[in-house]
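We close this part of the discussion by returning to an individual protein. Part of our work consisted of pairing the sequence of a single chain with a tokenised description of its backbone. The amino acid sequence and the backbone structure tokens for this protein are reproduced below.
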Amino acid sequence: MAIFTDPIREHADFGPGDAEWLHLLVGDWQMVADLAFADLALWFPHPEHGYVALAHVRPSTSHTVFHGDFVGEGIRSDLRPLVDKAWESRSIERSSETSWSSEMALRVEAVPMVRNGRTLAVLTTHMDLSSSRMPSRLELTYRQCAYDLLRMGTLGLWPDFASPTGSRRGAPRVGDGLIRLDAEGIVQYASPNGVSAFRRLGDGESLEGRSLAEVTASLLKDRRMVDETLPLVVTGRMPWRSEIESRGVSLSLRAIPLRDEEHRFGALVLCRDVSELRRREMELVTKDATIREIHHRVKNNLQTVAALLRMQSRRMVSDEAKQGLEQAMRRVATIALVHETLSQGLTQSVDFDELIGRQFRLSAEVASPSQQVKTERSGSFGELPSDLATPLALVINELVTNAVEHGLDGRTGTVWLIADRTEADDGEEITVTIADNGVGLPDKPYTEGLGLQIVRTLVMSELGGSIAWLPRDGGGTSVQIRLSLLDK
């Protein structure tokens, strides 16, 4: 999440890693907002506004106290003294009076985020106190956890650069389940969702008062498949993530060690049941493997057909029949090449530059076994979907063959393949040019052969593009194909 603007960077006197540390904070502070049942705002000094709001997060465990977005705006006059005090003292400051906003009683705390002995920003928490009911044990525990994390922020101990905060699929959140451990790894408190998660793994007893490491070890059936980071996560010793699987249930775990200036006094363990996510991922992996296998088998079958055509052509007495079978063999081999490429990847897109690079030279050589033909390629096709790659490869194969056989007409010459992929109003557009320096276009009308009929049909029907035959500057022929890649 980007939290700095250019004007802020001009006034920020950050050392190495300071900006990244604040980014890490904003990437992980949703957890603190959920634990504190409070809105969080991050403030940075500004010469005109006193302080400017860099970021704001709302809790998912409670309603927000700020319905409007104030990021980029200056600080309120009544809040500035508290933020000033926290900036100077480098300790958590709480407002001495309860403030009222929109008929809501608020308790505000200012927490300086200190790193390497320097205050980098001030985080404020805004909690609604208007509810008259007594807070539950869950709420009290959550708020204590939030305070411990913010206290670590004033010491530069949290966030930890070793803690993963990326959008890894199945990352646990506070509402998914929270377990608080003491320094020895004994469970002090487990939220109802946390207890339910371990019950689904097969643990039928209460978690409180037990070692989470021993509970987890008793649930493991095949210890050869255990993640090596699991022991350090379930004891709360390292800020890492791990996963445990038992009885068909997968549980994602994340540990956040709690420390002060001298030692580690506990840890938070967030847990989430990711069984359904892992099942769907396995289905996708299975489907991907099936699709790749299908492409592989289609490629093998097409290569078999090409081999049969080659064998049949050798038995032909007529040169015309032999040439027709050889052309059919080349077309089948071109389609097989696309399926071979698809069988090696995880997507249904083709790196067309790699594919056509092999085919372009081969097409010219096969079409001109007795003459010297030079090939030159420029531009880039990029990634193309398979439904476009197959007909386009066939079209290029036919046009290169036609350029060698009829354009150069037995002479020594050059065939060019030029790709130009550009942005268009409705997506992207590709212009493909196949040119030669041969005899040029005929003066009188001519009859299209099977190859050019295939080209025209594929370009118009399959590719939805246009094709034009033009004289080439300097002599020869230039064939230009235009087709659109519409945004999906």
Q: What stands out?
A: The two ends are 27 Å apart (CA to CA). The longest strand covers residues 413-424.
